[in-house]
Amino acid sequence: MSANKWGDGMLTERQLYILRVLIDDYIKHVEPVGSRTISKREDITYSPATIRNELADLEDLGFLEKTHTSSGRIPSEKGYRFYVDHLLPSLSVQPSVTDRTELLSTEKVQEAEALFDQSAKILSDITNYTSVVLGPNALDMKLRHMQIIPLSSQMAVAIFVTNTGHVENRQIVLPNSIEPSDLEKLVNILNERLAGVRLVDLNSRIQKELSSVFKKHVRDYQNMGVFLDQLLLWSKKEKLFYGGKTNMLSQPEFRDLDKVRPLLDFLETSDLMEKLVSSTEKGVTVKIGTENEHEAMKNCSVINASYTMHGKHIGTISLIGPTRMEYKKVISLLDSLSKEMTNRLNDFSK
Amino acid sequence: MSANKWGDGMLTERQLYILRVLIDDYIKHVEPVGSRTISKREDITYSPATIRNELADLEDLGFLEKTHTSSGRIPSEKGYRFYVDHLLPSLSVQPSVTDRTELLSTEKVQEAEALFDQSAKILSDITNYTSVVLGPNALDMKLRHMQIIPLSSQMAVAIFVTNTGHVENRQIVLPNSIEPSDLEKLVNILNERLAGVRLVDLNSRIQKELSSVFKKHVRDYQNMGVFLDQLLLWSKKEKLFYGGKTNMLSQPEFRDLDKVRPLLDFLETSDLMEKLVSSTEKGVTVKIGTENEHEAMKNCSVINASYTMHGKHIGTISLIGPTRMEYKKVISLLDSLSKEMTNRLNDFSK
DNA sequence: GTTAGCACTCATTGAGAGCGAGTGCTAAAT
DNA sequence: ATTTAGCACTCGCTCTCAATGAGTGCTAAC
Question: Are strands A300-309 and B155-162 parallel, antiparallel or unpaired?
C-alpha cells in the first residue's frame, strides 16, 4: 500500500482516491458531497459507513470541511491546494479546447492590443469565468523613434515609437525660451543617441551620458532639465484587458448580492488587479483563496499563465473564478492559450 | 383655480401638488406611498380619504400605479415624465454641488482623456449612480501632422496628430514595391495638402483631389490605392469613460440578481452604450424607462448633458440610474459639470 | 366637497410540522 | 482488524397557517 507525504501524516491510496472523487464531484455539482454519493460510484466497493470513516479522517487532516454538523463535506482551501498539486490528472489537452484557441489564429488580429482583448474575451467565453490579460509594459520596450510636433507656440505633442510598433504620446508644455531650431536639434540628438534604450530608462540615461552633448549644442541648458523631466518622466501604466467581468454573477456560490459586490468592485478598481495577476514565474501558476492576499478574493482562485516575446516574459493571461474552479479543464486551456499568444506575438515581429 | 394641460385632461393645483409630493417621497424612500403618509405632511389640510380620491384619479390618468390591489401608489413612467417636465422646482444649483465640481478644477488634469475619466469618477461618486462620458470622436478632429515610421522592411507605424493634440496610430503593411523615397514623398504630399482636413475625410479627399498629384510624383500608382485604403480607412471608435459601474448594485430596486444582471451586462458590452448616451440636443436631456428603447434599460433613466469645444457639441456626460432618480439634484449637477468640462476643455486649447 | 367608518385585500412575518440528506457511534459480521 | 449494518440524532429546507398591518374603495354622514 503506497502513500504520499503531506504535512504531518500520510494518506492511503483509498483516501487519495476518495478525496479526488469528492472534489471532482463538488466542483461539478457545487453541493456538499455525502458518503452515499461517493459509495454509489461503480468503481467504489466500500459501503457508506466505511467512506464516512475516511471522510472524518480527511476532515481531521484539514482537507475537508462541513457546512453544518450533519452536512456532507466540501473541500477546504488546503484540500484544493492538495488537489491541484497532487491529484490533477496529467494535463492532457482536450481536443475541444484546442479547437477554440485556434479561433485566435483565424481571426484577423493585426495589432497586439487586439490580440490581448480577443484572448481575454475568448477565454472568458469558453470558461464562463472572468479573465484578465496583463499587457506588456510599453515602457519596457525600446525606443525606435521619437518626435515632437508643435501644436501652438506653447504646446506640443511628444511621440515615442517603440521597437514593437507601440506608440506612446503625451502633451507637453514648451519652455518659453526654446527656439524651433533648438527643439529640432534636441530631437535629433535624442534619436541618434537613445535608439534602442528602454523608454523607462531614457531619463536616467540622459542624466548620465548626454548632459555634455546638450551643453555643446543646445542653448539655455538650465531650463532644459525641467523640460526633459516633463518629457521623459513616465507614470507606470500597464494595460489590463478584461473578459467576462459579469460572469461571476452566474457562479452559484456568488448568488448572494453581498458576496458578489466586493468582487465586482474589485474588478472595477484595477489598481490592485495588476498585482494580483502579475506573475514572475513562467508557466501556469494557481493561487487559491486567501493565497491571493486580498479580502475580496478569499473565495476565489486566480490562475496565471505568462506569455513571452523573444523568450522574455512580458505579460500574463489570467482567469479568476470561485475556488471551486474546473482546474483540470482550465489549467490546460490557459497553458495552450498563453502559448498561442506567444506564437502570435512573435509572428507580429517578423 | 389654475390648471395645466396634459394629455386629454386637466390637473387641479391640488392634484399637481399631491403628485409632486408623492413622487418626491417615493424617490426618497423607494416604497409605495399611501394616502396617510401624504396627509401627514403639515402643509396638507385634507384627510386621507380625500387624498385617496385624488390618488385614484391620478391613477386613472396614468400618472400613478399600484404594485398590488391594496398597496400605496408608485409613479408610472408617464408620472416621472410629467414630474421632470412640469413639477421640478427651478434648477437652482445647490451650493454643496458646486463645491464638488470645483474638484475638477483643482485636480491636475493635463490631458483631455484624464478630464473625461475624472469627470465620470467624480460624478458617480457624488450621485452613487453610474456615469458615462462619451469622448469626442478623434476622427472628427483635423489633421495637423502625419508621419510614417518604418519598423521593418514590411511593417511601419502610421501616426496622425490632430489639431487638438490627439494622436491616432496604426500599424500598416508596406507594399513590396514601395521605395523609401516614394514613401517620403507620399507623406510630404499628404502633409502639405491635407492639413486641416478631418481624419474621417482624408480618404475621400484623396480620391477626389489628389490622384493626379500622385500620378505625377509617385511610381507604381496602382498598388498605391490598396495601401492608402489601409492607411486611411478608419473604423469608428469613440471612447467611453465609466464611473461607478457597480453602483447599480446598491439601488434597492435592483437588489435582485436577475434584475441587475442584464444591466451590468449592458454596461460591459459597450457597443450599444454609445447610442444610448449620444445626444444631438444641447443642454440636459432626460430619457425615462422605455424611452431609452433598450430592454435592459426599461427600469432606468438616462440623463445626458453635452459639452462643447469652441461652441461645437463634441461629446456627452451621462448618468444612468433607476427611473426613480433624484432628478432635482442630478439634473442641475450634470448641467454644471458639463459646463465645467466645457470650460476646462477650452482652457486646454489656449 | 370633505371625511369618518368599515369591509376587504394582500404582502410579510413567524411558528410549527414534516421531510430528507447527512452524520457519528456501536455492535455485529467478515 | 476491517468493514458494515443499524440506529439515533442534527440540521437545513419547505410547506402551511394564522396573525399583523398598511393600504384600498365605497358608502353614508357632515
Answer: unpaired
